[in-house]
Amino acid sequence: MNTRTTETPTKNGPATAAMVLGIAGLLTAPVFVGGLLAVAGLILGIAALMAAGRTGVGRGKAVTALVTSSLAIVLSALAVVLLLWYANRTQECYRPDSLHEYAQCVRLHFDEN
């Protein structure tokens, strides 16, 4: 007599972890840390989606992780581009003696165009 039972898993831990990383990445994307969290979330989300395909558990969380991680990567890249553009545009203002001089210099650079 075979008393062995086959249980299907009820949890997909990688999907939950990937979703948390994706959301954290999205929330911290403007400070660049989000991009690193999102890359980890994206990789883990892909693995979780593959596991969900085998087990049928955690597909929603894995998809959420992929979407939030992808958005966080895009927002982090956009933040880097905007910071580099701003730094290039105001590079002459980086040696002021006071914050007032810096603000005045930046205003002059943006009012030129």
List key phrases describing it:
single chain; 113 residues; mainly alpha; rod-shaped
Mean pLDDT: 85
Rg computed from alpha carbons, rounded to a whole number of angstroms: 23 Å
User: Structural class of the helices, strands and pairings?
Assistant: mainly alpha
Unreliable spans: none
Main sheet overview: none
Shape, per Cα inertia axes = rod-shaped
Number of helices: 4
Distance between the termini: 85 Å
> Order of helices and strands, N to C?
HHHH
Helix content range: over 70%
Describe, in plain words, how this protein is organized in 3D.
The chain has 113 residues and is mainly alpha-helical. 73% of the residues lie in helices and 0% in strands. Helix 1 packs antiparallel against helix 2, helix 1 (13-27) runs parallel beside helix 3 and helix 2 packs antiparallel against helix 3 (59-89). The model has no long low-confidence stretch (mean pLDDT 85).
What is shown here, in short?
The protein is an all-alpha fold and 113 residues long. Helices cover 73% and strands 0% of the residues. It has 4 helices and no strands.
